[in-house]
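Lab notebook, bench 4. We co-purified these components, and the gel suggests they stay together. Before we commit to crystallization screens, I want a quick structural picture of the whole thing.
Request: model the full complex, all chains together.
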Amino acid sequence: MYSFLELAQQFETKFDVRHFPKQPASLYDAAQYILAIGGKRVRPVCVLMGNELFGEINKDAWQVATAIELFHNFSLIHDDIMDKAPLRRGVPTVHTKFGEATALLAGDVMFAQAYDYLTHIDLSYVQKIIKLFNTTSKEVCEGQQIDMDFEQMQNVSSDEYIHMITLKTSVLLAASLQLGAILGGAGERNQQQLYAFGKNLGIAFQIQDDYLDAFGDPDKFGKQIGGDILANKKTFLLLHAKEVANDAQKKEIDTLLELNAADKVQKMLSIYKACKVDEWAKELKEKYYKAALNNLEDVAVLSARKKPLHDLAVYLMERES
Amino acid sequence: MYSFLELAQQFETKFDVRHFPKQPASLYDAAQYILAIGGKRVRPVCVLMGNELFGEINKDAWQVATAIELFHNFSLIHDDIMDKAPLRRGVPTVHTKFGEATALLAGDVMFAQAYDYLTHIDLSYVQKIIKLFNTTSKEVCEGQQIDMDFEQMQNVSSDEYIHMITLKTSVLLAASLQLGAILGGAGERNQQQLYAFGKNLGIAFQIQDDYLDAFGDPDKFGKQIGGDILANKKTFLLLHAKEVANDAQKKEIDTLLELNAADKVQKMLSIYKACKVDEWAKELKEKYYKAALNNLEDVAVLSARKKPLHDLAVYLMERES
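Here is the predicted assembly.
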């Protein structure tokens, strides 16, 4: 069995090819561009790991892993257009480099190309695989829409936020694992446990993301601490702070959100700490992390086979950047 | 056997349902909105007609017809964003009504939903159907990209334009017919003839479109005559005029394209007529129309079965709006 990093390397080697025709270069170079930027390839590796949990990695799992990574990049291209993001992983986003219209189309062809890989798998799995892929695709779009809706709303509860983040990021992790499991011949119950593992892990991962942005170690965290606070991003931390703050704190939060004071980050962090948002976030993360581990525990295969997935969960949860 | 109009009515009745979940309404209402605007439903009916050419319309053909119409509307939503079009069929475009970000996502979920319908068909056809659907999807995107590239180019030949229009509009018509034929159990050769029929008919249709915009009867043509000229659109007519005009005419064309003179349409039409662009366009249309009819002729089924498709071709070619 392989570790996450070993599979990520193997995937990278196989994935590092041109996935599109040469012409029209104005379209396909834009599509290929984002794939070359790289990434952790967590989702496709989850397909492979979900597959290996039940036996040797089969050739269809590589096809589906490729489809998942293409889908993920399609959604990144379109999200970046919607969010008007200038940079991704330190380089210009597709629409910044190639224009919005081409970026939109590059996303579209990438989505179609993902389906192309899915049609190459064993016929007996095609319908089940494409169905889960479709459902997940639509959920990811729903998550992005709800996220945009939140930006226009005054009050969002942390429960609503969890629902949004589940759709926007967790279901793809969960589905990747399940797709691998399906191809590994897993039974329905094992598939569902693995899906739940991915879903809970994804939520815990996002809480960790929000936490690190506010409370991470500046020397280890790759980005500027407090970036979410500066951007008024509705994170787990902000939403919970608004739920538990007293009237004076609430007023201060609203003032901080309206103005861009020089000490905005510092002041918001003080409120977070006064409201014990940091402790709450840690506990919430633990809750989902433990639920994920329990799901993994409940998958009916030998414990030894679960080690790589267990290690992955630990790695994702203990990261400091 | 049914006529185009009968099938269009039957399709409309079946298609007139909600294709998406209720929530999030902010996303799915936008997607449903464009479907309710209506349209001629030419492409889905071509699936049904391609299917009926080989026997009774089977239930899978309805699924594929629905997928094709969803795909077509997905591409309309995204094209309208790219073209910054305020109106479609006289009503606000999706992005005008719901904002660009939501329109982009509404297109994406519609594309995914199209695949959902494709997975519901008989397993023995799934791979072949989805493969052709994928190829066609990518070609439509390529066509749109090449069309946008043309806007930035000084010189485009009419051959390049035909290539673009083939990808942007004809292949979808062609594939719709072939998809129906596949589900009808047609042999490879019949499938290819039908595909060629749709492709040639699509090109003839587009030439007719460009022709009517310039030379149509104002009383019968639904839109303003000369709309393409006012918008400096690179049509068959303009590209050919630039190819055959003498130096003085070329200079006048360039001046007309640069300035927006009050008599721009009238002056451009004079050049078109002096260059016999109208006659050329009629001949070119006839060439593709005849090629299409020959393709239909060559499909090895009883002539009587071809009548509805033949009537459709006549109807599309003799329209005046």
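The two ends of chain A are 27 Å apart (CA to CA). Worth comparing against the SEC data before the next meeting. Chain A touches chain B through 37 residues (CB under 8 Å).
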